[in-house]
Amino acid sequence: MPEKTINQADAPNFTIQREVVRPVAARGSSSAYWAAFQRCRVRAIHGIVAVKGTATGTVDASSGTGLDAAAGITIAGFGTSGTASVGHMTFGTQSVNHIISDTMTQTLEPGNGFRFLKGADGDLVAVVIIEFEVLPDAVMS
Predict the structure, then answer these.
(1) Which parts of the chain are beta strand (E)?
(2) For the chain, which terminal residue's Cβ has fewer other Cβ atoms within 10 angstroms, N or C?
(3) Does some domain include residue 14?
(4) In sequence order, what are the beta bridge partners of 78?
(5) pLDDT (tens digit, 9 = 90+) per residue, 14-68?
């Protein structure tokens, strides 16, 4: 009997949007990382305020480390994706449960990912949710 071929693009693994949650709390440091284990496309990154910040201003999106005194998060790539800023979220003094979404279509290879750098505001605590999909040509792990 001939071996049955399955089109991976039609397999359930490739039709599911996935989410990963990371808390971001440490002031002005690389406080959260996320790495892809399969080739994937990041569809959006959402940030939710867990503890209200006190600083105003905006996050400096010019680099992955150039944060000002804002209550916000810079999203930087690592691995072959580079280390430059790929997005930012400014929360300011928004109340608890306030949500900010940053849509994107960033494709990541295995081992590449994002780091989330918090601004200098010592009060803000946020939760970051990465929404992604595994690509049909990803190697199964």
Answers:
(1) 18-24, 30-35, 40-51, 72-78, 85-90, 99-108, 113-118, 125-134
(2) N
(3) no
(4) 113
(5) 566 777 777 776 555 557 888 888 888 888 889 898 888 887 766 555 544 445 5
